[in-house]
Amino acid sequence: MKAWIKLAIATIILAFIIEKCIIGSPNTERFSKSIIQKNLENQIGNILTETGKLQYSGYQLFPTLNWNPNIITSTTTGRLRLKKWDFYAVYTESITICVALADLGYFQNAFITIYEKNQEPITYEKLIPLWDQGELSDSAEVGKTFYNSSSFFVSFTNYNKNYKTIIARNDKIDIDLVFEKNSEQESMVYLGPFNEEMTQFFYSQKIYNYKVHGIIIVENRKYELNQELGMLDWVRSIWPYQGGWIWASGMGKYEDKNIALNLGELLKAKNATEATDDCIIVDNKLIKLGVVNANKSVKDENIWEFYTVNSEPNEKFGSIEGTFKVEKIFYKNINLWVFQSLLHQHFGEFEGKVTTLDGSFNFKIRGMLEVYYCRW
Ligand SMILES: *[C@@H]1O[C@H](CO)[C@@H](O)[C@H](O)[C@H]1NC(C)=O
Ligand SMILES: *[C@@H]1O[C@H](CO)[C@@H](O)[C@H](O)[C@H]1NC(C)=O
Ligand SMILES: *[C@@H]1O[C@H](CO)[C@@H](O)[C@H](O)[C@H]1NC(C)=O
């Protein structure tokens, strides 16, 4: 046998052994029953312990805990492991935009994704090498996220806790928006461990129902936004090598109320996780939901079904039941074997019913559902 054939066979066998025995399969187990949904209301202290582990597991409506990642970022491995992103989205009747700057430790990624209703979604992105880094904000409400090069510009600036500008441009797109909220607006601050030891975790703040105005220009098409709704997904996290999520996010006006929906299925350390980030927000008020599962319908592949695993609401959380109707799917796959990022982003409409001890209401809003798998 020729030497190169032997080498090729040996490489394939080695890759197979690494894949099966070392990398293994990811933890895709989901919660199939209710958990306590611990509210860490008014808790004061540091999010991380002195050794860089997550100190709490649960959720809050307002952030009262202190995020100081110095213990992690003081080492090179820590810096490489910390995954951060500031992601903004607006879902209007005619256009959905997602704009973000993400920092994966070994490179950064700025992107703009645009979905004009019933058109093919488009994305523009820039992979940013280590020697050309942008900066990311100190918290969801303080500081500045910024990247600029000759071909791509993003700038998310907090002027105060309730007022920020979201600017992004390249040669095809020009986004210039103001995001405003009020001090009473509740949000989903989430602290979730990925492992028992709490050394891997997801710390996020999702703020929905920002009032948005400004201009979006896509090539030669101009959209003027006035009193639309926007959201922020602010994440600082340490992941297992294989990660992923199913994340549903929607917003819209329905029967004179501003309604937002956030459903999340992350990999979880089952016996260390004390809350999920599933919730509905009506104007300023957040309704915590019990554990929600989302699944593609077996009857129609363009429909996803979601429901709380407990069907009955209680004093700590409500229940939900509904569907997501997919209009378009955007695929963004990078597969370098050891590094993978496989994103299926579905755009469409949510419809459903929420029930709490106070009664129930229906909603119909626009948004998206992401299915993501990664090795990083
Ligand atoms: C962004 O970079 C370009 C050159 O690459 C420069 O001309 C421009 O002034 C910069 N803008 C800001 C706001 O820094
Ligand atoms: C968590 O579950 C694992 C098995 O999945 C078990 O080995 C471990 O002892 C449990 N830890 C706690 C704190 O209950
Ligand atoms: C949801 O989908 C998963 C994976 O395909 C499947 O294992 C599970 O049984 C489904 N659950 C329901 C309630 O359909």
UniProtKB/TrEMBL annotation:
Organism field: Stentor coeruleus
Keyword Signal applies: yes
The protein's name in its UniProt record: AttH domain-containing protein
Phylogenetic placement of the source organism: Eukaryota, Sar, Alveolata, Ciliophora, Postciliodesmatophora
Pfam family, one: DUF2804
Signal peptide limits: 1-15
Keyword Signal: yes
Keywords from the named record: Signal
InterPro entries in alphabetical order: DUF2804
Highest taxon of the lineage: Eukaryota
